[in-house]
Specification:
single chain, 209 residues, mainly alpha
């Protein structure tokens, strides 16, 4: 990993941790508060997948089985909640890339990660643009680079195995996948359309014979 990549990854990890820890800095967090925070994040992710970024905060609280006041103690507004969900998912996608990096079939590992990314961005209706706008242009660039850095070993392994074109880069693939997710965001059968378009595109990743 280059010095620039390492710096970007460290910066984004620190930023992500800040989203999940900021509310604990003012006072020590009790075990029940930590459980409520985790339940709220899980509920928010599920509700966003169904209702999009305009999800009702009250519905999130009901799904998590906590009161609205509890939700607002952790997340004072919608943006804070969506941002926490967004950064948690980035961390999960990067962890998945690490896990897949040792999979026997490099091409299958890469495609599994790309499909996971595409399905998440497409299902998080209204949040798809988060990968391109995030909270600011600088934030978007850091998040994009963080994901591309995580995916880079998968791409390099697949290229070394002759499974994808040598000139394919993680940044290229991330751009394509985000484009597919944005294009299918409001499709009535988004998951199937993501699979169809991703399969169509990835056929073009194969080296020319």
């Amino acid at each position: 990993m280059s010095h620039t990549q390492a710096h970007t990854q460290a910066h984004t990890q620190a930023h992500t941790q800040a989203h999940t820890q900021a509310h604990t800095q003012a006072r020590p967090q009790r075990a029940d508060a930590r459980r409520n925070y985790a339940r709220l994040l899980a509920a928010a992710e599920a509700e966003v997948a169904v209702h999009g970024a305009e999800v009702s905060l009250e519905q999130v609280a009901r799904t998590a089985q906590v009161g609205s006041a509890t939700l607002r103690r952790h997340f004072p507004n919608r943006q804070a909640l969506l941002s926490a969900v967004f950064h948690q998912r980035i961390e999960a996608l990067c962890a998945l890339a690490t896990d897949l990096a040792t999979k026997d079939d490099p091409r299958t590992a890469l495609l599994e990660w790309l499909r996971g990314l595409a399905h998440y961005v497409a299902s998080a209706r209204g949040m798809a643009a988060s990968l391109t706008i995030a909270e600011s242009p600088d934030e978007a660039e850091h998040c994009f680079t963080y994901l591309a850095t995580a995916a880079d070993p998968l791409v390099r392994r697949a290229a070394a195995a002759g499974a994808v074109r040598a000139d394919a880069t993680a940044a290229d693939l991330l751009t394509v996948v985000v484009g597919i997710a944005l294009a299918t965001e409001h499709h009535p059968n988004g998951a199937a359309e993501v699979d169809r378009l991703l399969t169509l595109v990835t056929e073009g990743l194969s080296p020319r014979t």
